[in-house]
């Protein structure tokens, strides 16, 4: 089984129990199940053209039988043409490092580049770039490049995600003109974006109402844990109280929220308090239908590994990570039955 966008470019390919997913820049991820275990890996760059060639051959065989006008469009995308999309992507975007799972098929527009904090020990998503705000002229050029890259495939993308990390922290007088430009280029779509607790707390309810009126619908917040000492150990600004206050303000402004919590973070040393205080925070949050709580299995990388070694923080088992997720889901069912909980596996992200 193969699927394509409206430009004829490969999206997904399922063959012999393996699902391949192609990113806009022609990275290729693979996934398969072995019993209860889900295996995932990235195809090495040197191997990608060969797999594209196999896919192209399958389409050629189908076309010999079907003579479908649509497949003529697909056959334009030879392995070389698909690989050339890497260059086109690079002219439109800085790396798109991460998105919430429900926004994987958004139109991503980079109003900012990087993260305004960029010092959390567990995160390396934006370490390759300084935090910058796109001037209006540069942002307009970026929007045009994205529109050209997507072409007819933009019709599959029903929302706009305002990137990069915590782009919604920008003062409204800077942010609103950029949002208007994005909506004019990609009309008829709601807006979404990341926000951190520390900078987000600087805005008032009227500020958030103004963004709601401008088309922002859901704000995603990396809360990680309800345990303040663990946040401090992770070098993550903010606190559980600040998180609760900010989400209260966002909800008062009529916005939906997507708080993100990590399961397994802090290892054995912090496990008990991480669970206890996160359950307490989940109970406190004024969540309602339309919100999504994401539970993200912790993946160790970046400075975290060295910090854990120095402080003797040992990881918990995969079974214990699963138990944390179960407890968080049960808390949501008990206190916020209308709120959706979903897994956020960063290893499956591509754009």
Automatic annotation (TrEMBL):
Pfam short name (any one): Radical_SAM
Gene Ontology MF: a single term: iron-sulfur cluster binding
InterPro entries cross-referenced by the UniProt entry: Aldolase_TIM, BchE-like, Elp3/MiaA/NifB-like_rSAM, rSAM, rSAM_sf
UniProt KW Cell inner membrane keyword: no
Keywords: Iron, Iron-sulfur, Metal-binding, S-adenosyl-L-methionine
Domain of life: Bacteria
Cofactor(s), by name: [4Fe-4S] cluster
First and last residue of the signal peptide: none
Radical SAM core domain mapped to chain residues: 101-343
PROSITE patterns associated with the record: RADICAL_SAM
PANTHER family: ANAEROBIC MAGNESIUM-PROTOPORPHYRIN IX MONOMETHYL ESTER CYCLASE-RELATED (PTHR43409), RADICAL SAM SUPERFAMILY PROTEIN (PTHR43409:SF4)
Identification of the protein by name: Radical SAM protein
Organism: Deinococcus cavernae
């Amino acid at each position: 089984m193969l699927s394509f966008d409206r430009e004829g470019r490969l999206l997904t390919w399922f063959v012999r129990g393996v699902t391949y997913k192609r990113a806009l820049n022609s990275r290729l991820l693979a996934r398969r199940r072995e019993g209860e275990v889900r295996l995932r890996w990235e195809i090495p760059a040197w191997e990608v053209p060969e797999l594209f060639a196999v896919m192209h051959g399958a389409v050629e065989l189908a076309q010999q039988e079907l003579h479908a006008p649509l497949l003529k469009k697909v056959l334009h995308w030879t392995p070389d043409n698909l690989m050339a999309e890497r260059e086109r992507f690079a002219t439109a975007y800085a790396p798109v490092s991460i998105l919430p799972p429900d926004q994987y098929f958004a139109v991503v527009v980079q109003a900012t580049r990087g993260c305004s904090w960029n010092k959390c020990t567990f995160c390396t998503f934006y370490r390759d770039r300084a935090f910058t705000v796109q001037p209006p002229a540069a942002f307009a050029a970026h929007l045009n490049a994205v529109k050209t890259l997507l072409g007819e495939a933009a019709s599959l993308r029903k929302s706009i995600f305002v990137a990069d990390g915590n782009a919604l922290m920008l003062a409204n007088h800077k942010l609103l003109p950029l949002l208007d430009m994005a909506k004019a280029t990609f009309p008829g779509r709601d807006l979404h974006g990341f926000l951190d607790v520390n900078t987000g707390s600087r805005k008032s309810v009227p500020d958030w109402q103004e963004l709601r009126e401008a088309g922002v619908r859901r704000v995603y917040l990396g809360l990680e844990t309800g345990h303040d000492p663990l946040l401090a150990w992770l070098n993550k600004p903010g606190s559980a109280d600040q998180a609760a206050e900010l989400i209260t303000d966002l909800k008062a402004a009529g916005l939906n929220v997507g708080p993100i919590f990590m399961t397994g973070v802090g290892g054995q040393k912090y496990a008990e308090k991480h669970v206890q205080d996160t359950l307490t925070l989940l109970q406190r949050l004024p969540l309602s239908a339309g919100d999504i709580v994401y539970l993200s299995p912790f993946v160790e990388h970046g400075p975290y590994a060295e910090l854990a070694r120095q402080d003797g923080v040992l990881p918990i088992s995969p079974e214990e990570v699963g138990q944390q997720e179960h407890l968080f889901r049960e808390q949501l069912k008990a206190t916020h039955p209308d709120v959706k909980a979903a897994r956020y596996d960063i290893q499956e992200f591509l754009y």
